[in-house]
Design goal:
Keywords: Chaperone, GTP-binding, Nickel insertion, Nucleotide-binding. It comes from Biomphalaria glabrata (Bloodfluke planorb). This protein has 268 residues and is an alpha/beta fold. It has a seven-stranded parallel beta sheet with strand order 7-6-8-5-9-10-11, with helices on both faces.
């Protein structure tokens, strides 16, 4: 991967700009606390969000301190872990790959990946968030960032996947943590999900509609889902997958490395 010795970054702003989320945010939001012992705030969105108004990546130069990081989010059971496993299996022979999983009180997802030999165990880390899954990837991502930096220093990987804990359609990654954001929904949730919108659906860099093989069983229309996704995302990229069967995974990987190449080129 391309590395540069001078740390730092510059912002490339979308029409809504890019916000620093590390210390939380209160403008237009509300504050509350959880069992993990700190108070944080949430934005109150005034609509489902627009793809062309999403926070764009930070084109940075500190790749030797934090490798190219891909956030994988989505509701509980949508197939995030299955997609991460499939991506690891696809890429591990030709690329350096590391993974950070997030669960609230367990290491369930890490254990699943380890059981299925996604990567060497040492290349995967588990974060126990102890509270809201979205807080650990947005308002206070310090635990995830620490793992990403340590993995970068130890392995200098081509890509690091951060799998968030399962959350709702309003959850999304901070751009200070994720260079590329994938949001995973699944057909079993119903063909209404794309038109519900929310930052994950509308403002992720890539929307993945998973478990397409279940469409007939649950009475969902893939055509409706794709049409609604394209409309809600203003034709932002959408990929149909069966992660468990490896279908569509190569296309997901192509989007990831295309974004990496562009970001590192613009960082030079």
């Amino acid at each position: 991967m391309g590395s540069h010795s001078t740390p730092g970054f510059k912002f490339i702003k979308g029409s809504l700009g890019i916000r620093s989320e590390h210390s939380g945010h209160s403008n237009g939001g509300h504050s509350h606390s959880h069992d993990h012992g700190h108070t944080h705030t949430h934005d109150l969105p005034d609509g489902p969000g627009l793809f062309d108004q999403r926070d764009l990546p930070m084109y940075r130069t500190d790749w030797n301190q934090r490798g190219f990081t891909v956030g994988v989010g989505g509701p509980v059971g949508s197939g995030k872990t299955a997609l991460v496993l499939a991506l690891c299996q696809l890429l591990r022979d030709d690329y350096g790959v590391c993974v950070v999983t997030n669960d609230i009180f367990t290491k369930e997802d890490w254990e699943f990946l380890n059981k299925h030999n996604a990567l060497e165990a040492e290349r995967m880390r588990a974060v126990e968030t102890g509270g809201c899954p979205h807080a650990a990837i947005r308002e206070d991502y310090s635990m995830n960032m620490a793992e990403v930096r340590e993995l970068t220093q130890k392995y200098n990987p081509d890509v690091i996947f951060i799998e968030s804990g399962g959350d709702n359609l309003a959850a999304n990654f901070s751009r200070e943590l994720a260079d590329f954001i994938i949001y995973v929904i699944d057909v079993a949730g119903g063909d209404k999900i794309p038109r519900k919108g929310g930052p994950g659906v509308t403002q992720s860099d890539l929307l993945v509609i998973n478990k397409t093989d279940l469409a007939d069983a649950v009475g969902a229309s893939l055509q409706v889902m794709v049409t609604d996704a394209n409309r809600m995302r203003h034709d932002g990229p959408v990929v149909l997958t069966q992660a468990k069967n490896g279908i569509g995974v190569q296309e997901v990987a192509s989007h990831i490395f295309k974004a990496k190449e562009l970001q590192q080129k613009l960082s030079q």
